[in-house]
Amino acid sequence: MTMTGHDVPRPGLARRACVYVLEARAQFLTLARTPGFTIPTLVFPIMFYVFFGVVMRFSPLAPTFLLATYGVFGLIGPSLFGFGVGFAVERDSGALLLKRTTPMPVAAYLLARVVAALLFGMVIVIGLFLLGALAAEVTLYRWQWFTLAGVVLSSVVPFCALGLAIGAWVKAQSAVAIVNLVYLPMAVLSGLWMPISLLPSFAQDLAVAFPAYHQSQLALKVLGMDQGGSVGVHVLMMGVFVLVSLVVAGLGFRRVGRM
């Protein structure tokens, strides 16, 4: 019996797919079993939305506006901490070196962290949407709910890239502090906690340098509540940011490889 050209790669592809799935599952379970990661990641965005979107409504439009901005804010946490802190800890502890001795593809390791961040993000989005619809009486068209969810969940791409760049350079001992120095100021200056128009003019000019600003504007555009910028410009800026982050991460990997 002879094998055709189509028979050969199938087992290999199946085994590779299994490796990707198992690594993603392992990463998700590792994060889920870490209270220091899970509790703030899941609780903070939902808690803030309850306070400012449900209980303390500063305007009738606040619950709808904050649904988009706190959604983006919620995705930053698992993306930055999952990559920035997680990668630095595994590298300095030797766990990453151990994984490099296995036949697991590098892409499986990286994609697993993206998937883990995405799964946490889905929990956050579902929680926010349920609160918005049931407690804050947010009313949207069906296409707006689905489109907003897609835009918010796509936040994992730029923020995982940023986390990878941070994790490739910082030490495990300082990773949490560095990520927080990026995480919280970026959220405030990007208009995630309050409308960008309420910030001082110099802060509004500075906001365009942050990926969270462009991501939140894309989310707000679904609701017709953005600043009026072009979708193409926001997407282009996000693409440039991802590219720069990957280059910075690549340089960090090369530095680690020489050590």
How would you describe what is shown here?
By secondary structure, the chain is mainly α. The protein has one domain. The protein is globular and about 55 Å long. The relative contact order is 0.13. The model has no long low-confidence stretch (mean pLDDT 90). Helices cover 78% and strands 0% of the residues. Helix 2 runs parallel beside helix 5 (106-135), helix 3 (62-93) runs antiparallel to helix 5 and helix 7 runs parallel beside helix 11.
Search tags:
single chain; 259 residues; mainly alpha; 0% strand
Describe how the helices and strands are arranged:
Layout: H1 9-32, H2 35-55, H3 62-93, H4 95-100, H5 106-135, H6 142-153, H7 156-167, H8 172-189, H9 201-207, H10 211-223, H11 231-258
Global geometry = globular
Q: What's the total number of strands?
A: 0
Radius of gyration: 20 Å
The number of helical segments is 11
Distance between the termini: 51 Å
Query: What is the H/E string?
Result: HHHHHHHHHHH
Our estimate of the beta-strand percent is under 5%
* Largest beta-sheet characterization: none
Structural class computed from helices and strand pairing: mainly alpha
Number of domain units = 1
Précis, in short:
This protein has 11 helices and no strands. The chain is mainly alpha-helical.
